[in-house]
Structure formats: C-alpha cells, structure tokens
Amino acid sequence: MVIIMTGATSGIGAEALKHFVKLPDAKVYVGARGSGRIVPEGTDVLPLDLSSLKSVRSFADNIKRRLGSTKIDVLILNAAIRATDNTQRSEEGFQLTFATNHLAHYLLARLLWPIMAKGGRIVITTSDTHDPAIVPFGPKSLDPQELAYPNENSPKGMRYYAATKLCNLLTARSLSAISSKDKRDILVIAFNPGLTGGTSLMGKQSAFMKGLTTVFIRPLLSVVSIFIPFLFVGRPERAGETLAALVLGKVVPPTDKMYASLVRGKLTFPDPSQLAQNNDVMDLLWKESAAMVNLPEQE
Ligand SMILES: NC(=O)c1ccc[n+]([C@@H]2O[C@H](COP(=O)([O-])OP(=O)(O)OC[C@H]3O[C@@H](n4cnc5c(N)ncnc54)[C@H](OP(=O)(O)O)[C@@H]3O)[C@@H](O)[C@H]2O)c1
After folding, report:
1. pLDDT tens digits along 55-89
2. I want to staple 120 with a disulfide (CB 3.0 to 4.6 A). Which of 90, 116, 208, 245 is the partner?
3. Is the CB of 261 under 6 A from ligand 1?
4. Which atom of ligand 1 is nearest to the CA of 196?
C-alpha cells in the first residue's frame, strides 16, 4: 500500500503516521519542509514546502519518478498553518495561510489524481471552524481572490484560518464529485479532528501554559463542552488514530457522507456548513484555484 502524506512531522499527522509505519505492506512517503522534526524509521521523507507551488510540483514529480507504474492508494493532505498576519506571502505572492493550507494541497491533489489507484482514498484535514453554525467566527461567505490577496477589511487570525479550512472542505467535495464520474471509485473524505491540544498549530506554549492547560483549562473546557461541544479539547493521539482509521478503511463513512467530524472525541458524520454544500461556491473555488496554479479547469 502506497501512502503519501503532508503534515506528518507534528501533531495529529505524526500520531496518524505511527499507525501506518506498523503496517507490514505500507510504503509511506512524507512531504516535509525540513524543519528538523524526526519521523519514524521506515518512512521516506521527500522535500516539500507547501508555501511554494514550485516545491509542490517538484514533490509530485519526485513521487511519480519513484513510483514508476505503481499507483497511490492513499493521499493524506493534513498540513496547515495559521500565519500570524495577513501580510505574510508565499513564494508566488499569495497570502501564506491560503497558499499553504489550500492552494498547495489543491495543486498536489490535481497533480497526483491521475496516478491514484482504483479504490484509493484521499483524506483532507479540515476543521469545524469552517462552519459558522458551530463556531461563531466561521466564514459566512467566500471570495477566493480576497483570500489570496487580502485587504485591510479582510478576515484576520482565526477567521482567516477558518476560511482556508472551508476551502479544504470544498476541494474535498469537488474531488468527490469528480470521483463519482471516474471509474476508479476513489473515496474522498474531509476530516475534522476538532479542537486538539498539544500540537504546534497554535504556536509554542510555555511550560507554565502547558501545566495550566492540563490542570485547569482542559478539565474546565471538558465541562463547558457539554453545552458547547466544539470547545472540547481533544488529544492528538485520538485525532491521529481516527485519521488513520478513516484512511485505512477501518471506519467507513455512511453512503453519501464525506465529512467526518470528531465531536467530543466521538466520530460523527454530519453535513458540512451550508456554504460548504453550495455547489456554486464549490465550483468558483475550483475554477479560481485552477487559474492561480496555472492548470486548466478540467483534466
Ligand atoms: N490542532 C487543532 O486544534 C486542529 C483543529 C481542527 C483542525 N486541525 C487541522 O489538523 C491538521 C493538523 O494540525 P495539527 O494541529 O496537528 O498542527 P501541527 O502540529 O502544527 O502540524 C502541522 C503540520 O503541517 C506541516 N507544515 C506546515 N507548514 C508546512 C509547509 N510550508 N510545508 C510542509 N509542511 C508544512 C508541519 O510541518 P513542520 O514539522 O515543518 O512544522 C506539520 O507537520 C491541520 O490541517 C489543521 O488545520 C487542527
């Protein structure tokens, strides 16, 4: 089984990776930017910096060269960042969080789509922050151009990040729609791990903050989350285990469900946000993303 993965060097992805390296028949390729983090033995790490479309293209070429005629069974698009401000730019000049979380993964999925195996799986990690019905700062509209080149009135911080997670969900839906016309029967899932503590996404925590989180904040939020479920702080081990279970087909989404969401540690299959279900918004993002990465709209 060939598994290609981004975001495997830390947090939820690193926990999922532990499950893959145990498999006797798995060949795992991790795309990573060389931040010095260590991956388990037996994993092939190939250079990939998602803040550069050029790097994404060379990673895809590298994978194709190595695989020859072998196909990809599983593609996991899990990496993400939350840039500190909207002025940070990718190599090609797009807002950094949009470029890393969405554009790079969009391009990678499109470049590797032709070599996906029959019955393969693509899992894209999204977030319940994409849904304003669950998280108050979730996006209520989507303008890909504004995300790519934000102005001073554009969403910032978590609101901006949440919009890129909506892009992940919409891309998963687009791929799922393409898959339904493709004889290879590729299953596409968007996965929400839910608020997860102990990862690098929110930045470095001091030893004091870590202690405070364990002793006070996590137990407090656990009680509060009975009423406001998205405030439950899960563990990366649980999120990684669930991601691995979805990827390996140990858990299969019900027919017609493509959004898998961990809610208070329990895997559920709700509908995504109303905006995420909007086909016009989905098609607009696909079309504008294609233009941004210089690909035709269709294969
Ligand atoms: N943690 C949460 O509360 C939460 C909630 C909902 C959804 N999620 C989603 O879960 C996924 C994993 O997040 P996490 O919390 O596990 O975060 P994390 O610990 O920060 O891991 C992020 C991963 O992305 C990689 N990455 C970032 N920028 C990259 C780049 N330019 N090129 C290549 N790789 C890059 C990181 O690599 P390095 O080792 O080089 O840094 C790392 O492996 C993300 O999609 C996130 O949006 C997380």
Report:
1. 999 999 999 999 999 999 999 999 999 998 999 99
2. 116
3. no
4. 3
Range list of H helices, the chain: 11-21, 53-67, 96-97, 104-112, 144-148, 157-179, 207-212, 218-224, 236-247, 279-292
In three-state form (DSSP H/G/I as H, E/B as E, the rest C), the secondary structure along 274-295 is CCCCCHHHHHHHHHHHHHHCCC
Strand partners for 38:
none
User: Does residue 125 contact residue 61 with C-beta atoms inside 8 Å?
Assistant: no
pTM for the full predicted model: 0.96
7 lines ligand 1 (CB under 6 A): yes
Spell out the domains of the chain, with CATH numbers in brackets.
Answer: 2-204+235-292 (3.40.50.720)
DSSP state of 9: S
The pick from 5, 78, 101, 243 for probing ligand 1's pocket by mutation, whose C-beta has the most ligand atoms within 8 angstroms, reads 78
User: How many Å lie between the centroid of ligand 1 and the Cα of residue 176?
Assistant: 23
Query: 80 CB under 6 A from ligand 1?
Result: yes
Q: Which two tokens stand for residue 200?
A: 């690098």
